[in-house]
Design goal:
With about 200 residues, the protein is of the alpha/beta class. The chain is built from 5 helices and 7 strands, in the order βααβαβαββαββ. Helix 3 links the parallel strand 2 and strand 3.
């Protein structure tokens, strides 16, 4: 079935995540990440366009995807990783995880969070939207130019996009992701959608 929000991508599942039992280490990461996010005030007082995923529900959604859809390769990338909590949760779920974030102060905060919890997660400063994305004119040869790797070279990509970004994300996946790449989208509340390139 095609996704109504991401044209051209196949919907594997749309579900409301239900909190799961969490280990002490996962609970500590979530609590610490929330505390740091609440007390974090960058210069200027706010971070433009920052929206945060509920980490308890993200943990549940990642566990669901890991159990049902990813028996082999587990390369994970969070687009717009913010404070890094979701990428850290992905690492704890067994993924080879990284995050991409534009705000340098958040990249630094994410790296500290991962290091303090002894998690091997890489956070990269930059945009997950390559030049030309909004005009649907991305040059394939330049996909890795800014970050040093393609933001689509993963088995599972996680994103919590603004509604206006959905068509852009769908375009990037349709045009450049390899067949079988999974996209896990958070829609807010408890709602997640798992999509795949056909």
């Amino acid at each position: 079935m095609q996704s109504e929000h991401f044209p051209g991508l196949e919907r594997l599942s749309a579900f409301d995540a239900t909190p799961r039992l969490r280990s002490e280490a996962i609970e500590a990461l979530i609590d610490d990440g929330r505390r740091r996010a609440q007390t974090f005030v960058p210069r200027g007082g706010r971070i433009p366009s920052l929206v945060s995923t509920n980490p308890v529900l993200a943990h549940a959604a990642l566990a669901t995807v890991a159990e049902r859809w990813l028996p082999g390769e587990r390369r994970f990338c969070e687009w717009g990783s913010g404070f890094g909590i979701v990428a850290c949760l992905a690492r704890m779920a067994g993924f080879d995880a990284c995050g991409i974030e534009q705000a340098p102060q958040l990249v630094e905060a994410s790296r500290r969070l991962a290091a303090d919890h002894r998690l091997d997660v890489c956070f990269h400063e930059g945009s997950y939207l390559p030049p030309g994305s909004h005009q649907r004119r991305v040059d394939r040869s330049l996909l890795a130019a800014d970050l040093g790797f393609s933001m689509l070279d993963f088995d599972l990509v996680y994103v919590y996009p603004w509604p206006a970004e959905r068509d852009v994300v769908a375009y990037l996946f349709r045009e450049f992701a390899r067949a079988g790449t999974l996209l896990l989208v958070y829609h807010g509340g408890a709602r997640f959608e798992l999509l795949q390139v056909g």
